[in-house]
């Protein structure tokens, strides 16, 4: 329980710092999301490099996605992705039924509007991890009922 | 090894973000250090609250310091402080012979000037942890040989 706490608390502080130092307004909110996403991207790049140092070569895209759902997710969030689905045409949906970075937020609907800023970093995390494995992607996230959430990965064919 | 990696990478990104968004210059460097220290303070406050939830009451100041050196340090850095000394008059020196947030830096002297920004967050961490246990302090850090470092805690009598 306390294992991932330093990361969680730091993540919260980063969100607060970015939002506090920036100007307010619609455009700025978008920019803050991008900042968080970029930060996640670089962390994801670094992490995947360390995690795959001694792993065998990946067979295919699905094999890579499974690695993200298991090893990568466990490293950051101390649990695996609960469900992975794909249309076999480059779209993957990763469902986490108890996403750690949302578990501090109350489940009320009034907090739903804050969800995007708690998800941006992790979208970047996945995109960065995949990018370092040679897979270019667009990653988005949505919350249906807190603290469950879905990450949608769209692979960009090169 | 990979266990504390997400925290480490995020910590590095935070330093880079803070230094990148701020203006350059002497004063600004001081301000960035303060920002990092404050961020650490709040993370320390949150962490200690979670860690001490089910612990027995502390006997005295030394007992608190031991908790910081063992449980608190292990939670964040996956190792204990290697050496704790005190003059029994409110000064404590915590030595970590292989401080994780410095272990990515090369040991050359030319990198010594960058050490303060890698230590500020952790100084705040200790100060925040102590503060939530009712101990007001000033925490500074110094590096003699990388990646070993010493944190000096001066208790402020109230």
TrEMBL record, chains A, B:
Its main location: endoplasmic reticulum. GO terms for biological process: endoplasmic reticulum to Golgi vesicle-mediated transport; nervous system development. The keyword Hydrolase does not apply. It is found in: Endoplasmic reticulum; Golgi apparatus, cis-Golgi network. It comes from the Eukaryota. PANTHER family: TRAFFICKING PROTEIN PARTICLE COMPLEX SUBUNIT 6B. This is Trafficking protein particle complex subunit 6B. It comes from Scomber scombrus. The lineage of its organism: Eukaryota, Metazoa, Chordata, Craniata, Vertebrata.
């Amino acid at each position: 329980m306390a294992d991932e706490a330093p990361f969680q608390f730091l993540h919260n502080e980063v969100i607060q710092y970015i939002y506090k130092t920036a100007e307010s307004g619609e455009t700025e909110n978008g920019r803050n999301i991008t900042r968080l996403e970029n930060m996640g991207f670089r962390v994801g790049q670094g992490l995947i490099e360390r995690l795959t140092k001694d792993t065998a070569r990946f067979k295919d895209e699905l094999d890579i996605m499974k690695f993200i759902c298991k090893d990568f997710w466990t490293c950051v969030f101390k649990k695996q992705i609960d469900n992975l689905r794909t249309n076999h045409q480059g779209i993957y949906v990763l469902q986490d039924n108890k996403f750690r970075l949302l578990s501090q937020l109350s489940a009320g609907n009034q907090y739903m509007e804050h969800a995007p800023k708690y998800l941006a970093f992790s979208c970047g995390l996945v995109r960065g991890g995949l990018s370092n494995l040679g897979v270019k992607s667009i990653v988005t996230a949505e919350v249906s009922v807190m603290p469950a959430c879905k990450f949608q990965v769209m692979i960009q064919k090169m």
